[in-house]
Design brief:
homodimer; 137 residues; Thiol Ester Dehydrase, Chain A; elongated
């Protein structure tokens, strides 16, 4: 397991496909055509269907739950600013960095950011999690 | 379309099944067993696998994109506090209420909340969206 010290970092890269975007739209009961209809997305001044911001941001949960801190992490909060869209079929990089450790409780604050395939910041935010290392329980 | 005035409300109800939770785990590259393994969830002091908080919160995008304001809504931000878990197979109610309209830009702030099947608050947050009514473009 990675060490939980200020400055600890982890990242994930992923290309979302149109099937994942459609399933997420169905699951979240979101019929907004901006994610599903190329013609509509173009008219709305995006070059192609955009991935739901919350689906992209789900990668933060992926990193927190599987890499840093890892299995057993309890998500307490997530703030998100959707700065630029991420497009279907283009690689997303999600990064987190530990910026605060509570002294009284095992509660950790991470800066969380996503970038598009040309390195532009697309999502900026902060995650707060609780984590007790299962190996030292 | 619903009127966009301070106090405008909309809601969605949904029961997430284990398949949706598994697909979201795969899509977000999250291997945290707390969502997938009943034994682990029990040991971690939850009575059964919990739905990913971000999957539950995706219902806010569902309401914003399909009900209030509706199609064409652009998500600018979402703050989330995960207060209590929602469990697989139990009904979630997601509610939004318009609390602020910018005077200079078509930017709207909503309070966003989820409740479990016995009416307890599980997620509290705030969404900010941009919306231009396509009928008056």
């Amino acid at each position: 397991m990675k060490k939980l010290i200020i400055g600890s970092k982890a990242e994930l890269k992923k290309i979302f496909n149109i099937e994942e975007v459609k399933r997420f739209a169905e699951s979240s009961l979101d019929t907004n055509p901006i994610h599903l209809d190329s013609g509509y997305a173009e008219k709305a001044s995006f070059k192609k269907p955009i991935i739901q911001g919350m689906l992209v941001a789900s990668l933060f949960g992926g990193i927190l739950g599987s890499k840093l801190p890892g299995n057993g992490t309890i998500y307490l909060g997530q703030d998100l600013k959707f700065i630029k869209p991420n497009f279907v079929g283009e690689e997303v990089t999600a990064c987190i960095e530990l910026v605060k450790i509570r002294e009284d409780k095992p509660i950790y604050t991470f800066e969380t950011r996503c970038y598009n395939n040309i390195g532009e910041l697309t999502i900026d935010g902060v995650a707060v999690v609780k984590y007790i290392n299962p190996e030292i329980k």
